[in-house]
Structure formats: structure tokens, C-alpha cells
Amino acid sequence: MTRLLRNAALSALSIAIISGCSATANNSDSSTVTNQSASASVPLAMPPQADKPLTLNQIMANPDWMGLLAKNAYWADDSQSVYFNRQQHQSPIADVYQQGVNDEQAQLLGLNQLHLADQKHGVLNADKSKKAYLYQGNIFVKSLANGEVKQLTRQNNAINSVQFLTDGALAYMQGNSVFKLHLNSGMTEQLADIQMAKAPKGVVDPDTYIAKQQHRLIEYVALQHSKNKTRAEYAEELAAIDPTFAAKTWYLGDNEKVNQMSLSADGRYLVVSLSDKNYSWRADHDIMPNYLGKGGYVDAVPARARVAEDSYPGERLVILDLVEHAKKDVTIEGLTGFDEDVLASVKSENAKAKGETYKSKPAPRTVQLMQDWGWDQTAIQWHDTDNKLLVMMEAVDNKDRWIASVDLSNGKLTTEHRLHDDAWINYTFNQFGWVTGTNSFYYLSEETGYSQLYVKSEGKTTRLTQGDYVVDQVTLSPDATHLYYRANKEHPGTYNVYRVELASGNTEQLTQHTGTLDYELSPNGQSLLLTASTAIKPNELFIQPIGGEAKQLTNYTSNAFSHYAWQAPKVVKVPSSHGAKDIYARVYVPQGYDANNASKYPAVIFNHGAGYLQNAHNGFSGYFREFMFHNLLTQQGYVVMDMDYRGSKGYGRDWRTAVYRNMGHPEVEDLKDGVNWMAKNANVDAAKVGTYGGSYGGFLTFMALFNEPELFQAGAALRPVTDWAHYNAPYTSNILNTPDVDPIAYERSSPIEHAQGLEKPLLIMSGVLDDNVFFQDSVRLVQRLIELEKPMFETAIYPVEPHGFRQPSSWLDEYRRIYKLFEQELK
């Protein structure tokens, strides 16, 4: 009954927020499918007419009114149902639902059922009859034949990971220890105990004159020493012979800490990743003041280090033979180019600027396990049956990524694949893994300029995909005959699922979707679970049998949202006047749009965040508030454009790295082309164009207004980066290297260095609790503008907001100010 009341309340809320917006949208495929060949020569069509104009109060309200959508969906173990989360209106807790592939409705799981629910992350034994998984830090094993679930541990100290070994036993990790759980007997055996300390010295014979004299002259001292020595020798002999004893403790020194551990399939070898224990992600001065602390005082919240100060020491690997109790340090000499001075040209340029000369010389580089931002696997890959190991390493200087095999007997690496980039190695598209039951492995690489899929077998590499498109989300089929993947082959903004047969190399397209989607292959390999959207339809779940048609499983978008006459943006290609390829962009046109209207339209360009992100696609935008805001602007007579400027995702390596050491300049060139395109093709007055964006988009707003003061008549920068030296190291060092190595790049790319160019009205808005782009960024720029005596800027602060705002009232206040700015300056 409670659930029904909540859902009824949500329906009422939806109706109240829309306030009578009852215009029926044209939801046919033709209204939501973007013309994939759209270009400058294709005329822009008049949008659907909305009976009820949008208001900022409506579109900035709690997004629950749009529908309580299914999220984090995954297959049940039997491939006959799926699980997903839904978050009830304004609830901080996500409920868990299960829905059969042929059912019309999902079933809400009770709290007492969650431990029995099939888990997304789990491991199968060799014959795939059992699945082990962790729930709330404890181990459960499920029989896949009858669905019986057994809980094997019940403790408060969480277990980190679990895996089946080749002998059928389970291994798990807890802290820095590895245990083996014998399922037949129920006995738990400690395979490895890792202590980050120096090994105890034990009983030491006297080795100084005074000590030797003491033992020679004092019989009691000599006798006690002899007894202690005998006891220690006995204990060591007993531990070596007695089969009931646990394995000896490993002492790996007191200068490092454990980052990651991985156990071989038979439980014999353990890979341990170590790094300097004194390294910290922050210093004592890295704090963020919370002016509205719970106690009424100012709270000092810890914050991350800045790239100008962050000096990551890298990682090293050790191999522990748990049978022979032998340790091998993994050396990096086997990584091709491990000692190359890959930054020589950058260092030479910066030295020359200071009147100095840089002399290049080889030196070992700092490396670490690959930190991919988009995969769901580890950079350590053991063979499923043999003691063979692959690791993916990256240089901390961001210029190389290696896949290497490890000789377990001596710790030597052999490079199986090297990906080098003079700019930076992508932090996505790094999936790799063994092909089950073989000695082959697959991997993704951008070496052709686009992320493509490869397989290496017996030293021979075969490219399985090729073309000017991006491949990601690779899945090996359960029978290891196919590799499934997602790609944007037909259009950069349209993604579909494909598979390639490993034996023949034959490829087939499995989905025919115009939009964006994610997929998950069913455990039996016979169906796809799709999370798919179109330009005006948010994500819903679909089931598609391999070779069959997709069937919609969920329909949680609210009537209030789905029945509104939203304008689907048209994806167009804007020709580049700066030697780049076409720039893809979304375009919204005004209500009653007339290409020949004597009075030209004002326009707004939205700059997406993250830099490396794709927004000009054919799916529902992750910027859903901005999507609605842009619809509102069109109702007020504006043309709106979202550009995938250079540096954006989805267009290959060259587009991604066009901003290397030069952030904010190629992108602004693209924005200039966008303004010119709208003037030529959308009847826009080029003297009445504004721009706005958040995070990276706020940074671009600054760079445009500071360096091209005639391009835009006004700009709004939300949670903006003003100085890249203050941003984080993992992101910034990729693109600009580090400030100590490449100050030229930072000075060229940081808005605070160009603030003297501001001539048009600027609005700066920041959250005080932003732990991504610090509030200090805006504070420093504001003071710089004050000292430059620039009167044409205003600021707004949001005391309780982090990087992504949470309160509807904050969103509303922010966009009221943006809208007011455009109304005042562009009309």
C-alpha cells in the first residue's frame, strides 16, 4: 500500500509540475530519429508546437517528475529475468526490482530477499554449475541447477573479492590476507598473510665484543639464548613439516602499501601491487571550507591535491610463489621504451623559453597499472587454467600503455603490445582479456586513430574491426566463439551492438537502433539487455534475442514528460575552417521558425563539460536539464546549438588530442565556426549570440570571451576551471603534462592568464562545496578581474552545492540568472 501511495503521489507531482502541458508529442520514429546525413545544405525543419510554454520552475524541479527510470540493470543468472534499481521520489535509497523477460511488470524485492537476488558481479566455477558472489561483504554460493543459495561467511569485516580455483575450492581476500575455503570440508586455510613491515629478526647470535663477552662470562645469559634458539628452530621445523600449519607470513617492508592483489587460477601465485606508503592524494593544506557546517561552525573538508603539487610515485609489482614461499620483484626493463625520454621536445621548448638548454638522456620511467575510466575489469589478467599472466601497465607521463606477459619464475616482463601516443594515452578504450580455453587474448587499441578490436594468438596479431569509428564495451561470449562490442559505425552519434566470430572474422550487426545504447549479453549468450534512448526519449530497458527483434521491457518515463511536444535537436555537420574535419552539433530552432524571416534570430551555444565527452549524439542527452532549457529558449525565439568541439569523445584519436598543450584554443575556433554556420544556415544574427556551459564548458566560456571578445555578446560560466594548475593530476597531466615540466602549456591554456581580454558581460557561478573544480578557482579569477578593473562581470555562489548541483532551488536560481543574462544582452 505504501508503494502505491508513493507512485500515486509521483503521478500527482508530475501533473502539477507540468501545469497542464498536455500537448501530444509526435512519438513516431520519424520525429525522434536524427537525419544521419544532415549537413549544412539540409534545411532545418520547423519544430513541433507546444500548447503550453515551458517555465524554469518546471524544468529545474526535482527530475523525479520525468519518471523513476530503471538504472543499473543486469541479467539474472538463468537469463529469464533482469534486475534493476529504481529510486522512489526524493528517496536516498534505491529499491531493487526483478522483471521477467516476458512479464509486463517488475516485482519489488523486500529487504529480506536482497541477499538471495542474483548479483551482477560474481564468478563461476569451471563447469559453470555454481556461482560465488559477495553480498554486504560476505560470501554466498548459488547452485545454478536448482537456485539454492548458501551463505558461507557471516562477519563484520568485509571480504574484498572471491574466486573459484581450478580445484573447485574458493579463494577470497580480506585486507592483505588471502584465504582458501575448501567447500567439501568447510575448512578455511590462509594462503597468504601480507605484512607491510620488516621481518622480525628472531634469535640473533651475539655479534659485538660486549655481547660475546656477556655470553662467555654469564652462564645464565648463554643458557637462555641457547633455549630460545632451540625453540625457534623447533617452531620453524614444525611449521615446515606439520600440514596443519598456515602458510608463513610475508614481510614486504615498511616503506610501501598494498594497492591491489590478484591470485592465479590454481592459487599458487599472488601478484601484489605496491606503492610508496607516504604518498597521499592530498596535503594538510588541501581543505575546502564548509560555511554551513552542522555544528554552526566552518568545517574544514579534506580535498584532493592539485596537479601542480601531486607527484604520484607509481607502482611496482611483486610475484609471490605461495608454494615455494619465494618472492620475485617484477622489473620494467621488458617494457619497450621503458627508458625513453618521451618528453624531450616539450622539455626543450620550455628550457629554450627560459634561455636554457635541455640535454636529453634515457632514464627508467615511472609506471603503474593501467587506470581505465570506463571498464569493469582489472589490469591484471590470469589465464583461466594455466599459470600465465598478462598485465596492462601505463607510464605516469601518459605517453605509453603496454600489455605485457609476466615470467612467473623470474619476474621479467615481455611486451606483447605497446601503444604510444606523443600526446596522451586515452584513459578509456583499454579493455583486454584472455579468450577462454585458448592462449589468445583480445584488446582494444587506438593505434589506427580509432579504438579498434584486436586478437593476438601465438605471436600473431589480427585486427577484427577497422574503420573510422569507435569500438568499446567488449564482451566475450560464454562459449568463447564471438566477441561482442558496441560501435558508432553508421554515424558518430548512433551506437549499435555488433559481434565478430573469432574463427572467421565475420562481423554482424545485432541491433538497429538510432540513438545511444548500452548492452549486456545474457549469461546463456542468447539475448541482449539494452539500455537505450533516443533524442527525446530517456533510457528504457529492452530485451533482444540474438537475431531477433527488440522488445521494450520497461516504460517508466512519466506521461507528463513523454506527452509533451519536445523538440528533437537535429544533428548537423559544421564545416571546419581550421583544417579539422566536420564538427558535429545539435541544433534547436525557434517555435514558428522561418529560414527567410526578415528579423534574424538571437542564438546561444552550449558548451558541454568534461572536455572528452560526446553530446551531439542521437540519444537522450545526459544534460537533460539543458535539453529542456534549450526547448524553453526556442519557445522564446532563440536558436540553440550544442557543439562537440575538438577534444570531444566519439570521433577518434586526432579529434581527442587536438587540444594537447593548447586547451581552449581549437575549441573556440570550432565555436566560431558554429556561429558562422548558424548565421548562414539558421537565419541567426551573428551579433546576437551568447554562450554558456559548466565545468569544462565554463572554462570554454572564459576562453571564448577572453580571447575572442567579438564572438559572443555574453557568457555564463558554471563551476568553471580558471587555472589548470589547480585541477587534479589524473585528468590534467594527460593533456598539459605537469606544470613543472610544461609551464608553457598551462599558461597558454588557463583562463586566468587571459582575463585581460574580457569585454562582454560575464556571469560566474560556483558551488562552495565543489571538490572537483574548487570554489577557489572562481575566487582567484574574480580577484584578477577586479585588479584588471573589469566592470562587466557578476558572480553567484551556492553555499551547499558540490560540482553537480543537488538542490532544485540552486538549479532554478542558476538558470534564472543565465536566462536573464541572455534576455538582456541578446535581444
Helix- and strand-based class? alpha+beta
Strand content: 25-35%
Instruction: State the shape.
Output: globular
How much helix, percentage-wise, in residues?
Answer: 10-25%
Q: Radius of gyration in whole Å, from Cα? A: 30 Å
Oligomer state of the chains in this structure: single chain
Enumerate the spans where pLDDT stays under 50 for 5 or more consecutive residues.
1-41
Number of helices: 15
Tell me the total number of β-strands: 44
**What number is the mean pLDDT?**
93
Distance between the termini: 52 Å
Largest sheet: 8 strands, mixed
Q: What's the arrangement of strands in the largest beta sheet?
A: 37-38-40-39-41-42-43-44
Structure, described:
The protein has 15 helices and 44 strands. β30 (482-491) and β31 form a beta hairpin. The chain is globular. The longest helix has 23 residues, at 219-241. The chain has an 8-stranded mixed β-sheet, sandwiched between helices. With 827 residues, it is of the alpha+beta class. It starts with a helix and ends with a helix. α4 (209-217) crosses α5.
Describe how the helices and strands are arranged:
Layout lengths: L1 H17 L10 H4 L23 H4 L11 E5 L5 E7 L6 E7 L6 E2 L14 E2 L5 E6 L2 E6 L5 E3 L9 E4 L5 E5 L2 E5 L6 E8 L13 H9 L1 H23 L8 E2 L4 E8 L5 E8 L10 E4 L8 E4 L13 E6 L4 E4 L14 H10 L13 E3 L10 E3 L6 E7 L4 E7 L6 E8 L11 E3 L6 E5 L6 E6 L2 E4 L7 E6 L5 E10 L2 E8 L5 E3 L6 E6 L5 E8 L2 E9 L5 E2 L6 H4 L7 E5 L8 E6 L12 E7 L16 H12 L3 E5 L9 H5 L8 H16 L2 E11 L1 H12 L6 E5 L10 H8 L6 H7 L12 E6 L7 H13 L5 E6 L9 H19 L1
Parallel strand pairs: 12-13, 39-40, 39-41, 41-42, 42-43, 43-44
Antiparallel strand pairs: 1-2, 2-3, 3-4, 5-6, 6-7, 7-8, 9-10, 10-11, 11-12, 14-15, 15-18, 16-17, 18-19, 20-22, 21-22, 22-23, 23-24, 25-26, 26-27, 27-28, 29-30, 30-31, 31-32, 33-34, 34-35, 35-36, 37-38, 38-40
Helix pairs in contact: 4-5
